Amino acid sequence: MSLSRRHLMQSGGLGAMLLTAAGACSRPDQAASNDLAELDAVETAARINSGETSAVEVVGGAIERAERINKKINAVATETYDAAREGAANVSGVMAGVPTFIKDLYDVTDVPSGFGSRAFPGYVGGEQLPFVTGFLNLGVVSLGKSTTPEFGLTATTESIATGKTRNPWNLDHSTGGSSGGAAALVASGVVPIAHATDGGGSIRIPASCCGTVGLKVSRGRTPRGEPSDMPLSLSTHGVESRTMRDTAAVSAAMALPSSTSGLAPLDLVTAPLKERLRIAVVTKGADDGFVADPAVMAATQSVAALCADLGHHVEETVFPVGAGFSADFSLYWAAIADQVMTSWEQATGMPRNGLAFEPFTLGLANVFEENKADFQGALERLFGVEALMAEFHQNYDVILSPVVRTPPPEIGYFDGALDYDTLIERLTGYVQYTPLYNVSGAPAISLPLSMSPDGLPIGAMFGAAKGREDLLIGLGFEMEEARPWAGRHPAVFG
Fold this sequence. Notes:
By secondary structure, the protein is of the alpha+beta class. Helices cover about 40% and strands about 15% of the residues.
């Protein structure tokens, strides 16, 4: 049974915060809509709570959309529709009845997990990570698992195991990765929010490709992901959404207390930022010689001009990292692939092979094996990035940059069957902007502020000092108000 509005207000905490968000950030476009595909999570929860609709109706509608739309976008790795219908009848929580998906890199108890790979046939999820449990405890109803590339290791969602996930704006183009299934399901109106994670851009890249909002929070802001022997924690959990208030609500709900995170508290942000910021504009990539595609460059400059028109101080500069950052990050990424395979070998007693793993994953692991001697030096340099970024933010509140170097590429451009050298060169050139924030542990957000001449989304990325998600969310509300994106839908929607 859903909690009453009165009970939520009396109970305080997140329930009151979300109802406050629904009122403080009212959206006329949603208030007038009777189409459940148009509603964000905050509005959906408010309507369920008021009795205007029911969790059963909302979840049923989302399942109908999923069954119809997924035939075109292929973003669902595992369906749990029957369990969702059953759960919707008895759901409770501050987001009771809001439909969602969980990214298929992470277990949901008693639900199959594939990790975007052929290496785990028949595996059923066991113990859930704390973030997944906490997210589901908000009352959201999972309809299943969203697609991801093998182990989340690439910037598109085209795994051999689950097939090619397609961009709802243009089915011939990539959704990005590794939360590509999540972003496609949100962008197409199947669900208002979907669980996502970001270890090198995996929330922000799909957000840019699919025209959604994607916030990577600071390291430590939410419960850490799966246990790992890797020395530097890159990945954080969050959601793909279509509105700032959904991103704000989930981020505040899932934030750990300061006593645990070591960060300033993240209260619920419900309004545009009032203070004017010092914004650094960066269009060159982390490595010398990498510049954005003309369409992405024009989009970034347009957003910079908008920020200046709104009274922010805007200044062009470059990232504060030395040449070779991408090489160091790529070697660390290769070490992650090697660790995954080593764990698999230990669990199965079989050697890594091309029947279980994709060529790119094998290639990454081989690169690590061949360059182990360089790993410690790369690690030391990566550990130094946090201090470099902290010093940079003494002069700038926020960094504006592209999310990725080009608009969404065509399906197949990052095909995992390509020879390793070709694919890693393409990926390194494409992902020049996002990994910096995973390494430094600072927050960054992709906002759907521009479109390419071909009608594909181009995100703008804003990054802040570690612990300053509040600046990014407040600025996001300001951008959403100044350049609204709510009425802009892809060809495949609802």
